[in-house]
Fold these 2 entries.
Entry 1:
Amino acid sequence: MSRQKEVILDVLRKVRTHPTADEILLMARRRVPALALGTVYRNLKLLCDEKKVRRIPMEDAPDRYDGFTEPHDHLICLDCGKVYDVPSLQTKEALEAKLGAKVSGYEMKVYFVCPNCQREE
Amino acid sequence: MSRQKEVILDVLRKVRTHPTADEILLMARRRVPALALGTVYRNLKLLCDEKKVRRIPMEDAPDRYDGFTEPHDHLICLDCGKVYDVPSLQTKEALEAKLGAKVSGYEMKVYFVCPNCQREE
DNA sequence: AATAGAAATGATAATCATTCCTATATCATG
DNA sequence: CATGATATAGGAATGATTATCATTTCTATT
């Protein structure tokens, strides 16, 4: 595990904001000033393959990354884009029962307007 | 509703393959040969706003579009990328009950390996 | 410690879906 | 028929992500 990879993982584990690759770059550069964006993307992919990090693909914005890999789903504010963790809303087993087919996985995103943004309206 | 927009919608309603913007362009050009890709994208966005079409954002591939807007979810083959329709696997109400918050909507994709692709292994 | 080979890095260029821009065409209406 | 409003085609621009590649850093072995 290279220094860069280590720092990237550590940064992700210290934060619950589900940062983008860019944001990870900024945070990690405080410890590895010369870090390049390509290196961030490359290591994020490796870490995802190793199941140490989870990618959260965003529909109309840069993807975000999550250092916590226990199963959970995401609740996303349509206004400010903030991503909240929520307990799993599905199980593979329930899906397989409903669908009558072996399931490899699922990706679920719930959209809402967060309390902060609601107040502002 | 312009001729182009009409053809794009009609093409989408005649097909259950959830085509990409490119594929829609090819199909629609049989009836509007001069059709431009930008026009396809613009009208797809308009049709989505009018709730006549639904976008299916893909995680690692071009987005796909669905001319059927009754609520349903999607089952996606990890091998060939084919997209199948399945009945809704969630309700807003159930999600709101679980989460204790008003929900605007959700987007759920289930991954599997389709029978065709399974056979080939 | 010296070194060969492998692996990872930083910098830059390439990719590719999608959006933006602009001059032109179409259309409805007075 | 002129006018204004709207939509179009085509091409250029954008922006996130990947690929490339020369150089640097590790690692293990002598």
Entry 2:
Amino acid sequence: MNPKFFSLSEEKREAILNAGFHVFSQNSYKKSPMSEIADAAGISKALLFHYFHNKKELYLFLWDTCCKAMVEEMTRSGAYEQTDLFGSMDYGMKAKLRLMRQYPDIGIFAVRAFYEKDPEVSADIQNSMGQYLNAHAAKKLQKLDPEDFIPGIDLSLMYKEMYWASEGCLWEYIQRGYINVDAMEKDFRKLLEFWKSVYLRKNRETADERDAI
Amino acid sequence: MNPKFFSLSEEKREAILNAGFHVFSQNSYKKSPMSEIADAAGISKALLFHYFHNKKELYLFLWDTCCKAMVEEMTRSGAYEQTDLFGSMDYGMKAKLRLMRQYPDIGIFAVRAFYEKDPEVSADIQNSMGQYLNAHAAKKLQKLDPEDFIPGIDLSLMYKEMYWASEGCLWEYIQRGYINVDAMEKDFRKLLEFWKSVYLRKNRETADERDAI
DNA sequence: GATGAAATTGACCGATGCGGTTAACAGAGG
DNA sequence: CCTCTGTTAACCGCATCGGTCAATTTCATC
């Protein structure tokens, strides 16, 4: 790719990235034309080909940008250092929302790219995955203290359920084509409070006392 | 559309429907070629145009089939007559799974068609929506007895949370391109049991006794 | 205002794919 | 043999694709 791309103004550079994320997220790789991306970015197709020598290069650059941004934003948020489960979820949510404000379609793009089957790019995508897979979720789960939660609850299922609910909520917004990040944040906040009120063992002392009897 | 389509063998007819659901669910209307649908159905493009005079007709027929099948399957399942919340969810789930076994991509197709923006079909889609919108969810929510659930829980949020979790779970399967309905059923069952164990007020008597003290 | 380099584009190329048509083929029944 | 029905390969005209390039615009420097 042309290094001049990096000396573009941030506004223009992100316009191009977002145009790419958007177009590639709506249709498969093969059916996402460069001309459409150029139009969405407000530049000519020829200029887009000036920055990226061909379609595949742009696509893989977007994928790389996407992975790096996600990892960076998550580690920078401090979510991984939180010891409290819901605290780390809160931080992680904030990080993801911050990212979606900058790149509204980055989430959908990531999923579509991950499952893209076109042989022209699928191999490169899968190869680059190794370095980005994180085991944070599993580790987080191991560290949970069952005493903090209502008795008898299946913690791994609880974790998965919360993950699915977040995805489902996100999906509802995604489907509309544009994303209202503020409304989404409200919904996520409500979900977090709901989970805390339901899953957490509230009266730790009284529970201990009853067990002692 | 050509009435001869209905006198086709069920196997062939459903192969065509499923091919249509699949192709139209993966890309936008404009970028879903008839040739691809014909190939997926195992027939020639010319024959597909013999049954459906043009692309739009096939698309709207698929949409109509999709809406009718969903409504019919849900009412036939008896889910709406169940008084118990989790019972009706169980029945509804079974109905949807049955439908997805017959038409694996009908769910994704429905969502994509609902939000399709191409002016060639979007108007017709939206016009036909009025008759299919059901108010069952809202009614179901009104009938819930707070005494059945753990104290202080926000029932409408609980309902929404469960809905989102189901969607999120479904989404995970959808993204893979093909759908393993059996594995999905297992996951849904586990979710249902989890919700029951968490949301339901288990020891109705003991709880009342404690309150009385 | 002249100049040269860099940014940007309209127009173009060959190849491919699109929706839709048509003429021909295959086979079963009479 | 003919006819009717199901089925398809081949075709048509047009749009779109990835990618190129010569020409134009922009702009800092003199």
